[in-house]
Specification:
Elements lengths: L11 E3 L19 H16 L6 E3 L5 H12 L6 H17 L14
Parallel strand pairs: 1-2
Helix pairs in contact: 1-2, 1-3
């Protein structure tokens, strides 16, 4: 007899930034594209956070600014509007097109 009669499952969203391919810059806080890259990062995280099938995103955050930006995505947590979804879709199209050879396997793991 188990403690729970139902099985609980969770899904994690790995590589939500597609190995930084989603960004126009290098995702560093000093980049000329930092503001735009931060916005795309928040859109990607919000998209994941609003998907009830995914338990958690697992981004690779390496600077305090990236952690702060991820926290802003949690605070902003709401479904993307049409304009935001369009910007994220364009960024993801660019990401898939620019994905490094050693990360091509991510295309087989795409969920959304």
């Amino acid at each position: 007899m188990g403690l729970h009669s139902e099985t609980r499952r969770g899904w994690f969203g790995i590589k939500p930034f597609a190995s930084n391919s989603v960004f126009t810059g290098d995702s560093s806080p000093d980049s000329e594209q930092a503001e735009k890259d931060s916005e795309i990062a928040r859109l990607a995280l919000r998209c994941i956070l609003c998907n009830p099938a995914i338990t958690a995103p697992m981004p690779g955050l390496i600077t305090p600014q990236q952690v702060d930006n991820a926290c802003m995505a949690v605070v902003e947590r709401r479904k993307l509007d049409v304009d935001e979804q369009t910007r994220l879709d364009r960024a993801m199209d660019r990401a898939w097109a620019n994905l490094p050879q050693h990360y091509q396997w991510l295309k087989d793991w795409e969920y959304v």
